[in-house]
Amino acid sequence: MAIIQSIHIRSHEIRTEPKPHTVYKIEVQGPVRSWTVWKRYSEFVDIDTELTKATGEAPPAPLPPKHALSFSFRRTLNDDKLLEERRSGLETYLRAIVSAKDPKWRDNVSFREFLNAPRAHTTAGGESATSQFTTSSWLDEQADLMTLARDIRADLNKRDTLSDRSDVQGAHTAGVSAKRKLSALILRVGALAKGLADLAMGGMSQGELQRRTDMVSRLQDDCEKLSKMVVAARQTSRGTEQVLPSAADRDQLLNEATSGRKPFGRVFGQRQPPPQETAETRPLDEQGLLQFQNTHMQRQDEQLSQLSAILRRQNQIGVAIGSEIAQQNEMLDQLSNELDSTGAKLSNARKQLNRLG
Question: Are residues 156 and 141 in contact, defined by beta-carbon separation less than 8 angstroms?
Fold first, then answer.
């Protein structure tokens, strides 16, 4: 969870929908921004119960007593003194959790959701708010990155499957998605390593530091492996694999060679079989044969024209694909350069962690 610099409940408000009730305005100030949350007293009771169950221990400060509810609801709404006491008690309750030496209450997921607290994230410029990591939120981020690495591997497998099916567009989409996720993964892993260094400087046991350092190392190894899978071209060409002849094909070839053996002699060019009469040519005289030949050649010319149009279209598609591949190669080169730069940063971070260890 983001580090909370201050938290206040300065006012309350009476609302009539869906029925009359009082809500308290919680003002939270983080290291970057501030936000406001409105909560009812009953929601404080729920979060107190949830924190006690999750941690096995009640929060450091108790909730204000429920004695005001023993009066009529109308009196409670109109009694400013009771409302002020409750507001002050709720503020003390939240401040005690936020400032407690033990972070187990404030790092609980339910408490983060109660305050709508943002999680540690990577900024648009690629720098992560590592100072916002706590011991618990660091583990949450590490788990998210492991899930992201699995998603990238799934996209790459999908790309290969679609490529086998000659689905160029689908394979391209899956590959672009994998590259985009990989870029985010590399940046966030670097932020995670820096966050661990900050936590180590703040105080962490040697065993826990080594365990988390191993987690970062595994993520860095995953980044390296996934980068090779994304950038490197596939080593096999699935569409041009040679098919070895079967035993039946070899036997047939040998039998044909034995049974159809011709006498030895010098032959120039390929031996042509003698022309054969067909049902179409048998009733025709010389003039009819000439006309038939001309018609047949015209038909072949038409088919050739159609084939030429198809080939031109295929050529246009090939040029478009070539242009797209060239663009993707440029993107891959750029990504490779970014990976080299990020790899150097990760190496420096790993050296810092080793010095701390």
Answer: no
pLDDT of residue 61: 93
Do 229 and 180 fall into the same domain?
yes
pLDDT surpassing 50 at residue 293: yes
| Nearest-10 Cα torsion for 128, 131, 136, 142 | 20
Strand order in the sheet with 21-29: 6-15, 21-29, 34-40
**One domain, residues 103 and 10:** yes
Within this chain, do residues 138 and 217 fall inside the same structural domain, yes or no? yes
Q: What is the CATH number of the domain that holds 77?
A: 3.30.1520.10
The predicted structure's pLDDT at residue 126: 40
Task: Tokens for 55, please give them.
Answer: 């941690």
In whole angstroms, what is the distance from residue 49 CA to residue 130 CA?
A: 31
Rounded Cα distance between 306 and 314, Å, is 12
Rounded Cα gap, residues 82 and 72, in angstroms:
12
Question: Whole-angstrom Cα distance, residue 296 to residue 289?
Answer: 10
CB atoms within 10 A of CB 327: 10
The per-residue DSSP string of 235-288 comes to S--GGGPPPPPPHHHHHHHHHHHHHTPPPP----SPPPPPP---TTTTT--HHH
- Tell me if 136 sits within 8 A of 208, measured CB to CB: no
Range of the domain at 22: 6-115
Q: Which residue has the higher pLDDT, 233 or 185?
A: 185
Tally of domains in the chain: 2
Q: What is the dihedral of CA 217, 218, 223, 225, to 10 degrees?
A: 120
